[in-house]
Design brief:
Blueprint (H helix, E strand, L loop, with lengths): L1 H8 L14 H12 L1 H12 L8 H17 L3 E5 L10 E6 L6 E6 L14 E3 L2 E3 L3 H20 L8 E6 L9 H4 L1 H9 L2 E4 L4 E3 L2 E3 L7 E9 L3 E2 L11 H17 L6 E10 L1 E5 L4 E5 L4 E2 L2 E9 L3 H16 L6 E10 L6 H16 L18 H4 L4 E3 L6 E2 L7 E3 L1 H18 L6
Parallel strand pairs: 3-6, 3-7, 7-18
Antiparallel strand pairs: 1-2, 2-6, 4-5, 5-20, 8-9, 10-16, 10-17, 11-15, 12-16, 13-14, 19-20
């Protein structure tokens, strides 16, 4: 089923339909957005000028204060969700309102990947291009949420729409355990009928792309033990193969037996082995001591894995477990797995959202919008709610060079993103409410 959905996902967007024109109310929203784009840019500048790296707790909270002001003005009930002190995370901002019909979860994040040590890069524009830390990832997306809701409010449509806005404070470096740092987000996903993620839009090859699938991101750690002895006795019945050869067998078997399924990738990012190994999982750092005339006693490998579905993840883990269990003489090995971002699979509901979004793109004078290949985009917070609701990501403005000093945004795309989001919510809210 996943393979079939991916094939459909990668096909060109559906041909034009009667829905690909704006109604009077939709045109009113588009006109209002054009008239208020300068205000949206000013709000974007205000938030970009606040340094808010994930570990800059005060900065994240300050950006949250700005966005809370905006959600309060829209009539949403706002709440700052604190994280436990030991997690060293600022917390999250939620805004909620009741209504009837389909329930919408709109997801942004307050933090950036740039910490204070990376320097401060405030908002600066040169023509249509604006730069600044977090401008595309994803402070512009936060503004798109606010102004899409304001446009809906302008035509009297927002009052009846149930909405939950989630501004996450640690998207770039999630607090652990995830069961705590993503608890409220997952609860909002269970509540929602539709989840929309507002990280930057993808515009490639003169085409807009919709994100209906994202791969998971999780970790694994392999630990191997051998019998320490003089190297002259290695491979003997008394000594066996040692930790390093057993690890080599396991990693080669991973390469031969786990590698291959489409959209499944895994990586061994750190390895240390010898007589003694010091391994700091929190810092992803290891050191080892060993000699060429001593059979190595211990070894550790730290790795990661990405999958397109929960089923694919479970298959990969089970296959790795079976490989690890077949130990060479006088060795033993174990593998542990750490859950991270779950997969956002390309469900039929997600593809229906993509088609609706493509219709709106055409109605706004652009090309049909096909679905993006999952290999082209990493994990995001929308993945935590995708198992519970239909989801679509990449509803932000067009930018690029995220996580680099040259991060930029096309300012003219800000109004486009607001229009697309407002019209999508408007149209979906008028469809028959989900059971």
């Amino acid at each position: 089923m996943i393979r079939l959905l991916i094939a459909l996902m990668l096909a060109i967007a559906s041909p034009a339909s009667a829905a690909e024109s704006l109604t009077d109310d939709e045109q009113r929203m588009a006109d209002w957005i054009d008239a208020h784009t300068a205000e949206a840019v000013a709000l974007l500048k205000e938030t970009v000028d606040i340094p808010s790296g994930t570990l800059n707790l005060a900065g994240v909270r300050e950006v949250g204060d700005v966005m809370r002001r905006e959600l309060d003005a829209l009539g949403l009930e706002t709440e700052w969700v604190e994280m436990p002190v030991e997690m060293n995370r600022a917390g999250h901002l939620f805004g909620r309102k009741n209504g009837s019909g389909k329930k919408f979860l709109l997801i942004g994040h307050l933090d950036t990947v740039f910490e204070i040590d990376d320097g401060i890069r405030p908002f600066a524009s040169d023509g249509d291009i604006a730069r600044g830390h977090g401008i595309s990832d994803m402070k512009s997306g936060n503004i798109v949420i606010v102004y899409a809701l304001r446009a809906l409010q302008e035509i009297g449509a927002l009052e009846d729409i149930p909405v939950s806005v989630a501004y996450i404070g640690d998207e770039e470096e999630s607090g652990v355990p995830l069961s705590v740092s993503r608890k409220e987000l997952i609860e909002a996903g269970i509540w929602a009928d539709i989840a929309l993620g507002f990280e930057e839009a993808v515009f490639l090859d003169d085409t807009d792309w919709a994100t209906v699938a994202r791969r998971s991101s999780s970790g694994w750690t392999l630990t191997v033990e051998g019998k320490q002895s003089h190297s002259s006795s290695i491979f003997s019945e008394e000594t066996g193969a040692g930790a390093i050869f057993e690890a080599a067998r396991i990693l080669n078997a991973f390469y031969e037996q786990v590698r291959g399924p489409e959209y499944l990738t895994f990586n061994a990012g750190l390895i240390a082995g010898g007589t003694e190994v010091q391994y700091d999982a929190g810092q992803s750092r290891a050191s080892a001591f060993g000699k060429s005339n001593v059979v190595p006693r211990t070894l550790v490998v730290e790795g990661g894995m990405r999958t397109i579905s929960t089923e694919q993840l479970e298959w990969a883990r089970a296959t790795m477990q079976a490989i690890v269990a077949k130990n060479l003489p006088h060795t033993k090995a174990s593998i542990t797995f750490v859950d991270g971002y779950p997969p956002m699979s390309p469900t039929e509901g997600n593809l229906a959202l993509q088609r609706a979004f493509s219709d709106i793109n055409v109605a706004l004078g652009r090309k049909p919008m096909p679905a993006l290949d999952p290999l082209r985009r990493g994990a995001a917070d929308i993945s935590f709610v995708a198992p519970y609701t239909d989801a679509l990501a990449g509803l932000g403005a067009i930018g690029g060079n995220g996580h680099t000093p040259d991060e930029y945004l096309e300012l003219s795309s800000l109004s486009l993103a607001i229009k697309r989001a407002a019209i999508l919510i408007y149209r979906l809210s008028r469809e028959e409410a989900a059971d």
